[in-house]
Amino acid sequence: MITKMFCKFVKINCMFKKLSIVCGLCCWLLVAVAQNQLVGFNPNAVKKQLEIEKKFDSFLSSQRIGETIKLLSSVPHHTGSEGGKFVAEKVKQKFIEYGWDAEIKSYKVLFPTPVERVLEMTSPVKFVASLKEKSLKEDATSGQEGQLPTYNCWSADGDVTAGLIFVNYGLPSDYEILKQYGIDVKGKIVIAKYGRSWRGIKPKVAQEHGAIGCIIYSDPIDDGYVPGDVYPKGAYKNETGVQRGSVMDMVIYPGDPLTPNIGATENAKRLDRSEVTNLLKIPVLPISYGDALPLLEQLSGEVVPRDWVGGLPITYHFGDGNTQVHLKLKFNWQMTYANNVIATIKGNLFPNQWIIRGNHHDAWVNGAEDPISSLAVELDEAYAIGKLMKLGWKPKRTLVYCAWDAEEPGLMGSTEWVEDNADILNKNAVVYINSDGNGRGFVNIDGSQAFENMITQILKNVTDPQTNISVFDRDRLKNLSATKSLEEGRKIIDNPFYKIDAVGSGSDYSPFIQHLGIPALNIGFGGEDGGGEYHSIFDSYDLYARFKDINFIYGPALAKVTGRTILRISESEVLPFNYKNTAKTILTYIKEVEDLANQIRFKHQLENLKINENSQALSADPQKKLVFNKTLYKPDQYLNFSPLMKAIAALNLAVEKIELTPEKLTASEQQHLNMKLYQAEKKLLSKEGLPRRSWYKHTIYAPGFYTGYGVKTLPGIREAIEQNDYTEAQQQIFEAAAAISNLAKFLEE
Q1: Do residues 300 and 373 both lie within one domain?
Q2: Residue 301 in domain
Q3: Residues 67, 125: one domain?
Q4: 235-278 pLDDT, tens digit each
Q5: Do you find a cis peptide bond into 313, omega within 30 degrees of 0?
Q6: Cα 528 to chain centroid, rounded
Q7: What is the pLDDT of residues 9-50, one digit of tens each?
Q8: Do residues 458 and 376 share a domain?
Q9: How far is residue 19 from each of residues 340, 491, 582, 625, measured CA to CA in Å?
Q10: Is residue 536 part of a domain?
């Protein structure tokens, strides 16, 4: 199958650029063949390493992973609950049983839970929303006691009544459309669809536009009967399903909102809640599309644009304020404990070099997919490593396996641990490897591009359990099938490496890479496991086993990818970083922001010109043409990108000089180089952090101010350009250039 598909693709391309494509394909095949050369290993150490990895694989068990998923998702286990304590203790117990040293490290954090939730329409008709998901006989855990009600954590308390306005997905661009229609949401309650952005952006933007309340619902066009059969017949969201979730403004800072930049220990100095800068001031509530339908069908006013229309059997209107809604929310703003499980195996050669692996254990309800599916994989990795230890193997570097609590409310468990241990992590942490849910489909990896060489070799050595081709090949075929041009296809074939994507936010890697500059990877499988169970009572073992990963075959696949990554970093003589890939990637980001600046500048300037009035003057009067061009190209809207280009040129020169071949280095040279390699990413940090959110210090990656989980590369520059703040954009160019130059100088040494 794979051979036929590639031959067909290459044949089509050969009509145009035969030589280029054949050469590119040959390069790719040559890299694929060179499996006896592992990144960071002497040739004489490769055989032993591959034997260790083969034994590791033999200890993995899809059956055991399935049993662990069933056990740990058997009870609701949100932060601070009895179920949460049960899961943390079970995880600790398993680590100890597998031969690890394990302890529970707790932090005292703020975690609000709902006391009162009311949503009702008072006119033109009466309606009271149920705000409840129905239990199903086909789902054994869907009616359990102890489940958190449907709510958005970090909503403000509030009791408001106002007209209802439909705002599509509630993004800044949607408010531009509302403005064109003359619709103002000030003093109104808005209703937005889930999707197209992180949920917390919707109330944030609504609040900025003067709304006094926000309702979020899952429209069936995105998350219901339009994409597939609803649960229990299929995996998609039924009419009562609701997506819970945090609406903390994590793009300001994640973690316990009362203790920014310091660990939330028992006696930590805490802010008063009135001083916190990353919490909303308006009430916000998630609802099902079953509860949304009666509200939306009563909206009047103009009909929405076609691309705003959802999947409900109604005509979608903006609303004109005549549909009155009462929203009342009250929360218990309680302190509770986030219980992290920390397990370690001390390295026998380099105990002060830590390889950290993590996955959270808390869930909004039972959380079979999010997070237990990948936590079970982490535990199976720990089991396999424990079995290797019993055979006499010992890791060269210290392994630290973590199961985080309070990830769902805002990455609290991991962030507090990182902030509390910042000094020792800055010295010892080599890498952080994260997962956060796993399912059927394709591998997805984002993080530090310096690992692309190593990751490529690993993915070519792991077999996809559905297709029996390598995980690398399956990803390559997926990308080829999605190409829209021959040029795109040629680039895919010519690139011998797996492309690691940039990291945004939304999981526990964020404090490691974006706050401390510790290299990080986030790894999982998915793409063929669609459904609507996310953060609902239906994220259950029954749904997962039927629809997400039948027979749990992608559990071992994930364990092989993450396990090899850990074992190779642990055992390598020269740590498998290659900053050539980093430099190449940063250069693409520089070109992107430069293009963005040109596009936005020209767009805004052209909008301010009366082109029709000037068109005749341009052709008739050269002097007027000169005036026109001066108007078009305003000097204060030009940005000087030369500092970035000089910095990236220096980085390219520096990385070319680094010798990464272990057999050419003495033991002391290897040790010196390794210290440099894992400390290098920190040079990309800004001491002052990003504008208006100094917790985020990485100059290359950050979650977007209005994208939430979604990444913004070169974020300080990119977002300043998007906001037409050219003074700040130029400052951020200097800031990023300084960071890249620091990395170049550091590696030059």
Answers
A1: no
A2: yes
A3: no
A4: 999 999 999 999 999 999 999 999 999 999 999 999 999 999 99
A5: no
A6: 18
A7: 333 333 333 333 333 333 333 333 344 589 999 999 999 999
A8: yes
A9: 55, 14, 28, 47
A10: no
Q: Which residue has the tokens 């009895």?
A: 82
Residues facing residue 399 across a β-bridge: 345, 355
Contacts of 44 (CB under 8 A, 6+ apart): none
Q: How far is CA 687 from the centre of its chain?
A: 24
User: Which of these three, 335, 355, 378, is where a domain ends?
Assistant: 335
165 belongs to a structural domain: yes
Distances from the Cα of 366 to the Cα of 361, 373, 634, 637, angstroms: 10, 11, 57, 52
In this structure, the answer to whether residues 517 and 370 fall within a common structural domain is yes
Hey, what long-range contacts does 726-732 have (CB within 8 A, 24 or more apart)? 726/636, 726/637, 726/638, 726/639, 728/691, 729/597, 729/639, 730/639, 730/640, 732/691
- Tell me, yes or no, whether 195 and 135 share the same domain: yes
Residue with structure tokens 């056990």?
Answer: 71
Q: In 3D, which of 609, 630, 627, 602 has the Cα closest to residue 724?
A: 602
pLDDT, tens digit, 9 for 90 and up, residues 686-723 = 999 999 999 999 999 999 988 878 889 999 999 999 99
pLDDT value of residue 29:
34
342, with CB counted inside 10 A (0-12, 13-18, 19+), is buried
Domain identity same for 324 and 346: no
What are the structure tokens assigned to 311, written together?
A: 């999947």
CATH code (residue 31) = 3.40.630.10
Band the pLDDT of 438: cuts 50, 70, 90: very high
**8 & 138 share domain:** no
Domain of residue 181 covers 112-335
Question: Which tokens sit at 86?
Answer: 């049960």
Give the chain's length.
749
Residue 537 included in any domain: no
* pTM for this model (two decimals): 0.92
